[in-house]
Amino acid sequence: MCLAVPGRVLDIEERDGTRMATVDFGGVVKEVCLEYLPDLQVGEYAIVHVGFALQRLDEESARQTLELFAELGLLQEEFGDPWETAAAEAAGSEPAEEVRNK
After folding, report:
1. Least CB-packed of 19, 34, 81, 91 within 10 Å?
2. Strands, DSSP E only, in 1-102?
3. Exposure of 34 by Cβ count < 10 A (0-12 exposed, 13-18 middle, 19+ buried)?
């Protein structure tokens, strides 16, 4: 499944003419393209799908959505466990979640 997930913009920079942001999704941090929301600012929230910020979102709605996704296990499904992934990459193996899904 591929969700549109709310995230908070931590910082913004331009890379090769493209406005990019570091976004926090409830503890998971990813790089996101801001070209569809060129006026989005640090500290604001947006709905992100496949690496693109698509719609501005208020903080309370973002928090409620992240909490609901976490309760349903959807964040784990979408992002995996970053610690498990990092440990598996360091050991040269696949994370347990990916192995279970095969």
Report:
1. 91
2. 5-15, 18-25, 28-33, 45-49, 52-57
3. buried
